Every structure is written in C-alpha cells, then in structure tokens.
Amino acid sequence: MTEQLAQKVLTGNRRAVARLITRIENNHPHAKTDLATLYPHTGKSHLVGVTGSPGTGKSSLVNKLAKACRQKDKTIAILAIDPTSPFSGGAILGDRIRMNELVGDKGAYIRSMASRGSLGGLAAATDDAIKVLDAAGFDVIFIETVGAGQSEVEIVKTAHTVIVVEAPGLGDDVQAIKAGILEIADIFVVNKADRNSAGRAVASLKMMLELGHPTSRVIMHHGQMMQVGSDHPHKVQPCDSADEQVSTWLIPVLKTVALTGKGIDEVMTAIDQHYQHLQHSGELAERNRNRLRDEVRSTLQLKLMRRFLAKIPSDDISAIMSEVINRRLSPYNAVQQILDKGF
Ligand SMILES: Nc1nc2c(ncn2[C@@H]2O[C@H](COP(=O)(O)OP(=O)(O)O)[C@@H](O)[C@H]2O)c(=O)[nH]1
Ligand SMILES: [Mg+2]
After folding, report:
1. Strand order across the 249-250 sheet
2. Ligand 1 pocket test: which of 53, 56, 58, 60 has the largest number of ligand atoms within 8 Å of its C-beta?
3. The pTM is what?
C-alpha cells in the first residue's frame, strides 16, 4: 500500500506527491518508509531558494521564474513555506490566486507548507517534501520562505542557489541585513524596479558586497565570501563574459519588475550560470554533502535526545531544574546530574 504510493510518486503522479507531503506534515507512520523508497531516486533537481522580507514580491517573482522555466520545457515545483499562517490563511490564499497562471499545467506543481503538526520541525518536514518533489522528477524546485526568522534562514540555506529579494520603499535600509540573510545570497534581486528608489537599493547592496573596499569585488569561492583586491588585477575587471562568471562566482545584483516580467530573463540566466558554476567548481557536490551531513546529524540529535529523556522521570528533571532556578546548582552541573541519571 505504502510501496504503491512511493511508486506512484516516482512516475510523477501529482496526487501521490500531494498525499505523501500531507503524510509528512502529519507525521504519518508510513511517511518515513515511503521516503526511504524514494531516496535513491533523489539528488537530481536544482533547488532554488527565494527569500526576503514580506511584500518584496517573492511570490510574484517565483511565479514569473516558474513560467520562464516552463517555456524552456523545464518542469517546476514551488514549495511556499509559511511557518505562521494556517493552511487557509490569507497570505497563502493570495499566493494561490497569484500563481493561478500555472494551474492546470502538468509540468508545474505548487504547494504550501505550514509548521502545523510537523514534530521534527518545519525544516525537517521541508527537507522531506523536497525529496518527494525531487524523486517525482521536477527539474527545478523553488522554495519560497519569508526571510524573517532563524528557521526560515535554515531552510533556504540548504538550497543550491539562494536568491535574496529586496524591494525599495520598505524603509531605507536594505532589509536583508536585519535577518542576517545577506551572507547566504548567491543572487540579489531588487524587485519593484518600477519604483524610483530602486537604484538606491541596488547601490547600497553593491556597496555592502564590496564591504567598504571600493577597488575590490566580493566573490564566492568554495562557499566562502572572499575579497578580490587590487593585488589580483585580473579579477578586478568587471565580469563581462559568461565563462568568467561560471568559473568565479560574482554575486550579481539584478533589477526586476515581477509584475511585468522585466528583468526575469537576466535572473533566469543568473540561476543557470550559478548552477553551472556549482557543477564546475565542485561546490554542488560539497553543498549536497553538507546538506546530507546536517540532516543526519540533526535527526540523530533529535532521536538521541528523545530516547535519553524518555529514560528519566520528568519529576527528577523538575527537581534538578528547581535547584538551578534557585541558584543552588549551576546549569553545567545540572546537565552532569541528568547525564548520570540517564546513563
Ligand atoms: N510596483 C510593483 N509591485 C509589485 C512588484 N512585484 C510584486 N508587486 C506587488 O507587491 C505585493 C507583494 O507581492 P508578493 O509577490 O505577494 O510578495 P511576497 O510577500 O514577497 O511574496 C503585491 O501586491 C504585488 O502585486 C513589482 O515589480 N512592482
Ligand atoms: Mg509570498
């Protein structure tokens, strides 16, 4: 029965995909078995994370990018992560309407996810949902998150290509600084470029990328942000050939008007080039290794913690905790006592 569901996912059956993602959200006992069947068939999709403050135009942008992919005959899935709203919440409803243009297209699949019910946390449920979409054979998976909190940053960080979306007029500061998402961007998009202050937003982003070193450029090399200064004059040149952009990743700052589609082609090109860069530099394999290592580690942590705590009566922990709260026992020594009880 469960074997059948996984098999159907492998054929790209959308109802099976939807059912399995629902099982994941609800911690259905069979979900992990299904995922184990699918796992050998994963690792083929290009994972594109899109993040930024609410209202910057992420959903509108993803919609346009998805359509551009479809025109190139690439199949796409969109996972819209909303950690706060319930399923029928206003924001998601709005996204549904906006994404209507893709509905009815067999090569496109749109799904929103909320944290409700996912015991291992939203990040774990999202990882599993991505595996389902990957195994179902979607070429590109867009993961849209609001760049507001740590968990959303964690989710989007695991994508191969991370697009950080900014928009002018949401206050003068570049929004990304606040949430600490600046470091994770592979591509910056300043959306709503139909607004006057877009140029200023682009300029301040570029300025931040240069980190106060006007003659240097910041590049991504093996996942590290690096300064390329005047001691490397050959690299200070603006990047004007696609070949150069593929071998050394220069984080682009691109302007779009998601409402009209202006600038979308340039973002598509940057997404493709970044993927090529990841492949040619070996970074794709590295990011995938890191992803999987993190996943195994965090699952292990969770399981160990649960198994360990199950061995200790909760009254014992409460008693130790009240000693800590009354400042008679240090937190470190409290942990030592708990460990002694459990082992
Ligand atoms: N003027 C202008 N408005 C836009 C643009 N892109 C999106 N919007 C509008 O901005 C609002 C928020 O867009 P949405 O895609 O939901 O943003 P999200 O919250 O980041 O997903 C909507 O009312 C969009 O119609 C744009 O390029 N220019
Ligand atoms: Mg949105």
Report:
1. 224-228, 217-221, 249-250
2. 60
3. 0.84
